[in-house]
Amino acid sequence: MSLIPLQLQSGVYNNGTDFESSNRWRDASLVRWHDGSMRPVGGWTERKTSAFASAPRAMISWVDNSSGSNLVGATFDHLYYVNTSNTVSDITPTGLTSGTLDASLNLGYGGGFHGFGNYGVAPTSSGVYDEATTWALDTWGEYLLACSSKDGKIYEWSLNTAVLPTALTNAPVSNKSMLVTEERFVFALGAGGNPRKIAWCDREDNTSWTPLATNEAGDFELQTQGQIMCGVRMRGRTLIVTDQDAHIATYSGPPFVYGFERVGTACGIESRKALVAVDEGAYWMGHKAFYMFDGSVASEIKCDVLDYVYNDINHSQISKISAVHNSQHGEIWWFYTSGASTENNKYVALDYKEGHWTVGTLDRTTGVDRGVFTNPIWSDSSGNLYNHETGHTHGADKPFAESGPISLGNGDTVMKVSSVIPDEDTQGEVNVTFKTRFYPNASETSHGPYTLSNPTDVRLTGRQVRLRVEGTGNNNWRSGVMRMEVIPGGKR
Fold it and tell me: In what order do the strands lie in the sheet with 166-167?
């Protein structure tokens, strides 16, 4: 007999055929890898039931001047404030133009993008979607700034729940997004209904928007064939991403104030909330690819689950894709809508420190990272708030990972496995199932699940075997390199 180590590389690989993922993990949910071992992601506890009336599309947390912690969430038609006692206040601006919960085909007059097609003629393309309404949220000191992609005004709120947010005086309207730069300028993106225009206020004065020789207000129209989708603050610069390319805005002072440079082509973003900036750079989910701006150039990054994600995603609801940073574990999670679902129910995550990917099932629409609050706070499509990365309870779901085919030698040897020696630190919190077959497209035979002991007796035969590891308890188990005891077999 011989011991064969099941030494599978960290992360999920699910591109191409089943056999192309040989000796790799092919499917997973609610697990992560660190230093070569697999473990469940942190669990969650409910923070506030029905905090919002519908699925939130943006969320922000910040500390005010009195060191108080604040949380705001935005749905397609409302803005909500949640204090540290989880009391929810509706702070929707008076006269806010209600948006749309779901993306839908826009075939009427005015459908499609500005400047495309014939004026007065309804679009006939069955592929033009009116996007789900999202929000851009940022802070101006301790005050909140908010802009709905449907309403287009930039609102300011002064932390008084008795006084609703009001539109910034003199600011452009019909904007698609906005942000506050490191230099304390407010950028209106898609300003005034022009999908390529960026307008900014005077420095430290968000009510002064008319360019004068005595101020630093200004505007610039990007030379791009796309429309501006979103932007994000970075170290010393501001990244602007369109649905076609990426640009950097760099502060230069008067008289030009900002200079703009294209840093990537054919790297358009998929939704207005699919962008996250971290110390290492900025990451976003694009059209059938993922991209990174490393401070110099925007480029596609290798994704081991690209085929799986883009075959799984509901392309009609791509405007709901939302990215969150999980800094505690060096991860970026993108929540997306899969299959026939109309709300986010899946995720794809990148461990940008170790460089591997994972996927899973989870109903979340947006969230904020830890920092202002002790834990990350994420929300589901029903408007419930959850504290994440706390404990190891995952609701009704069980963390698992399933491998691609594992073969001996050149794949022509029949394995006869008599036992498994686990490398798992809790002994009883993990079950293992084996699935055997003799040819890549043959039917599988399932063996188990087995509750692991040291060793664990099994009886299975096959030319290739797949391994499924599933957590059964609520502890922080670890699974490393298991070994199979193989009886010498032969060819079949």
Answer: 135-140, 143-148, 154-157, 166-167
Note the residue count of the chain.
Answer: 492
Going from the C-alpha of 337 to that of each of 243, 313, 340, 466, the distances in angstroms are 19, 6, 8, 28
Query: Would the pLDDT of 75 be above 90?
Result: yes
| Residues 254-282 pLDDT 10s | 999 999 999 999 999 999 999 999 998 99
Token pair, residue 256, equals 């030009």
Highest-scoring range by mean pLDDT, 16-25, 203-212, 408-417, 437-446: 203-212
Phi/psi at 320 (nearest 5 deg)?
A: -90, -5
Selected residue with higher pLDDT from 484 and 390: 390
**What string of DSSP letters covers 384-403?**
-EEEESSSS--TT---EEEE
Radius of gyration of the chain (CA): 25
What is the residue-averaged pLDDT of the chain? Answer: 92
Residue 227 tokens, joined = 């429309």
Range list of β-strands (E), 190-302? 197-200, 218-221, 228-234, 237-242, 245-253, 257-265, 275-278, 281-285, 290-293, 298-301
Q: What is the mean pLDDT of residues 20-42?
A: 95
**Whether 357 contacts 349, CB under 8 Å:** yes
Structural class in CATH, domain 44-388 = mainly beta
Percentage of residues of the chain with pLDDT beyond 70: 93
Distance of CA 100 to the CA centre of its chain: 21
Edge-to-edge, what's the strand order for the sheet holding 356-361?
Answer: 322-326, 331-336, 346-351, 356-361
414 pLDDT more than 80:
yes
Q: What are the residue boundaries of the structural domains of the chain, listed by start?
A: 2-37+399-487, 44-388
Query: In CATH, what number does 2-37+399-487 get?
Result: 2.60.120
CB 348 within 8 A of CB 276: no
State the pTM of this model: 0.93
Residues 92, 148: Cα–Cα separation, whole Å: 11
Give the chain's count of helices (H) and strands (E): 1, 43
Q: In the chain, what percentage of residues exceed pLDDT 90?
A: 78
- The 3-state DSSP class for residue 169 equals coil
Angle at 422 between CA 420 and CA 426, to 5 degrees: 145
- Domain 2-37+399-487 and domain 44-388 have a common topology: no
Distance, CA of 201 to CA of 97 (rounded, Å):
24
Which tokens belong to 109? 């007059």
